[in-house]
Amino acid sequence: MEWTSLPRLTGIAFAFCWALYFALFARFLRGSRMAQKSDTSSLLGMILQFAALGLLFWLRREDYLASIGLNIAGLALGVLALEITRRSLQRLGQQWSLAAQVKQGHRLVTEGPYAWVRHPLYLAFFLLTVGTGLAFCSLPGLLLALPISLSGAGVRIAVEERILRQEFGNEYHRYADSVPSLLPSLATKSSRRMGRRRSR
């Protein structure tokens, strides 16, 4: 394989990653249950997240042909993000929605990826954004885009958590006290297992 084909292969790989990422959500856009509580202001956070993603391509670097290690690291983060997304949506099912909302029959999901962080879907989007940046973007561009992406996630988390705390009350407070918001802690799952054992 000629090294001159690396940019094309990297581009195809990331295009596939992003296409698969959005495809995972597509089947939940239909047959959605009626929302009881909804707040579309969370969509502002999504706008910031995609603005950061666009910034990565606008400030792309010219030397990514030689950055084989960064391409591999970026793709590894992309694959990890896809798996987190798949597992999270598997747990949420029809409860997932584009805007922050609580639906009829909504239950608080705390299993699977939600046992590690309260917002694994936002973590997955951030990891895929970081992976894309590592493969394509200049370092200044990456350092500029990632805080914007995190700010967008922060907006969405704040709106979503306000609704969840109103809906689930003490149940959500206990969950939030034991599980971090966005970045997993090694102590999180072991502490929750110990808590379950003590309650038996």
Our Rg estimate from Cα atoms comes to: 18 Å
- Mean pLDDT, all residues: 83
Alpha carbon gap, first and last residue:
59 Å
Query: Tell me, what's the shape?
Result: elongated
The helix content, as a percent range, equals 55-70%
* Spatial order of strands in the largest sheet: 1-2
CATH class: Mainly Alpha
What's the CATH architecture? Up-down Bundle
- Do you know the CATH topology? Four Helix Bundle (Hemerythrin (Met), subunit A)
Q: What portion of the residues fall into strands of 2 or more residues?
A: under 5%
Number of contiguous helices: 7
Number of DSSP-assigned strands:
2
User: How many distinct domains?
Assistant: 1
Structural write-up:
By secondary structure, this protein is mainly α. The chain has one domain: Four Helix Bundle (Hemerythrin (Met), subunit A). The protein is 66% helix and 4% strand. The protein has seven helices and two strands, in the order αβααβαααα. Strands 1-2 form a two-stranded antiparallel sheet. The C terminus is likely disordered.
